[in-house]
Each structure stands twice: as structure tokens, then as C-alpha cells.
Design goal:
Elements lengths: L12 E2 L2 E2 L10 E4 L11 H11 L4 H8 L3 H4 L15 H13 L5 E5 L7 H15 L5 E5 L3 H7 L2 E6 L2 E7 L4 H19 L1
Parallel strand pairs: 3-4, 4-5
Antiparallel strand pairs: 1-2, 6-7
Length: 194
């Protein structure tokens, strides 16, 4: 989706712009896939300012933006005097996710956002995603193996198996059970095939 890997067939387009033919889509999209998206030798503040500059934000606007994450950062990220590489995996993930939100992108792609986070931070992140998703024109694309968290924050869930779309569900109160049944059936089918 981010033109990181060339497809063997087909293409991805954002607003009718093929991502492998133009970079015009990049101003609308932000992502945090893994810690390779971070710059380990920067402090979190330096990283946020760098991302802000890429997205047309000055330091003052980035500082103002970061105030809303005081609770999420839990006093462990800003003004810690640490480089990103010296933060815990969970705190690195917080830096990456918040960095992806800087500049109000329309599409925010997160891969396994709840992994390596303690339970209270997972709840804070779920609340953050829900709140930002309410804003007009903001879409989160979350790739996750965690069915419980995913069903709590997503209003639509797409299941892809070996490159094929196998389920497209508008989230409802029974979605988690529906997905659990689907995956249980897949386990049973694979056991029967062996």
C-alpha cells in the first residue's frame, strides 16, 4: 500500500493516484509499520520536529500538538534525555504512532499497534484511535492479529487470506464471535486437510 514492495499483479491507488506512479498521495497518508520507520539516533522531540517539518508544521505547532499525548506518554518520552533507540519497545511504538498522526493525514496506517504495549496503554491507544476516527476525513487502516482490540476500534474489518479477501464485515456487537468462529473453522479445515 505504501509502495514499499512492488506487487506481482494489480496496483494500489489513493484518490485515483497509483502509488507506484506518483508521490502526490504521500501528503494524505502517514504510517507506522515498525521501528524501521523511526530514526534511532534522534530524541523523540527531534523526531517529532522532523516529521512535523515534513508535514509543514513548525516547532510551536508540534509542541502544541504533543500536549494532547501527555497521558499516553506517561512522562517517559518527552524530556527524557533518551534517544529513540534507548526507549523500550512500547515507548518506541508510542513515538511512531504519534509521529504518524502529526500533520493531520487523511489515512493513517498502523501495523500491529497494540503489540508491546501494556494494558493501560492499549486502552489509551484504543481511545485515541476512536477519537481521531470521529474526525471528518480521517481513516485508520490497522493490520492486526488481535481480534479483540481490532473489533473494539474498527467499524469495518476485512480479512485477507493468502492475498484473497475472504470477509468484509461492518462491525457489530457479534463481530468478535463471528471472527472467532471463522478462524476456528479455518483451523478445523486445515486439520482435516492434513
Amino acid at each position: 500500500m505504501l509502495d514499499l514492495i512492488q506487487p506481482t499483479t494489480g496496483y494500489v491507488s489513493i484518490d485515483d493516484i497509483k502509488v507506484n506512479e506518483s508521490e502526490a498521495w504521500k501528503s494524505k497518508v502517514a504510517a507506522f509499520v515498525d521501528d524501521s520507520f523511526l530514526i534511532g539516533y534522534l530524541t523523540p522531540e527531534e523526531y517529532f520536529y522532523f516529521i512535523g517539518e515534513l508535514r509543514g508544521q513548525n516547532k510551536a505547532s508540534v509542541d502544541e500538538f504533543l500536549k494532547q499525548f501527555h497521558d499516553l506518554f506517561n512522562g517517559e518520552i518527552l524530556n527524557s534525555g533518551k534517544y529513540i533507540r534507548d526507549l523500550s519497545k512500547g515507548n518506541q511504538k508510542k513515538v511512531g504512532i504519534v509521529g504518524a498522526i502529526i500533520g493531520n493525514p487523511e489515512i493513517i496506517i498502523l501495523d500491529e499497534p497494540f503489540a508491546n504495549l501494556d494494558p493501560s496503554t492499549q486502552i489509551k491507544l484504543k481511545n485515541l484511535v476512536k477519537e481521531l476516527s470521529k474526525q471528518e476525513g480521517v481513516t485508520f487502516l490497522i493490520s492486526s492479529h488481535d481480534l479483540s482490540h481490532t473489533t473494539e476500534v474498527c467499524n469495518r474489518i476485512v480479512v485477507v487470506n493468502k492475498g484473497q479477501l475472504v470477509k468484509d464485515i461492518q462491525t457489530h456487537p457479534e463481530t468478535l464471535k463471528e471472527l472467532e468462529r471463522y478462524f476456528a473453522d479455518q483451523v478445523n479445515l486445515s486439520g482435516e486437510l492434513n
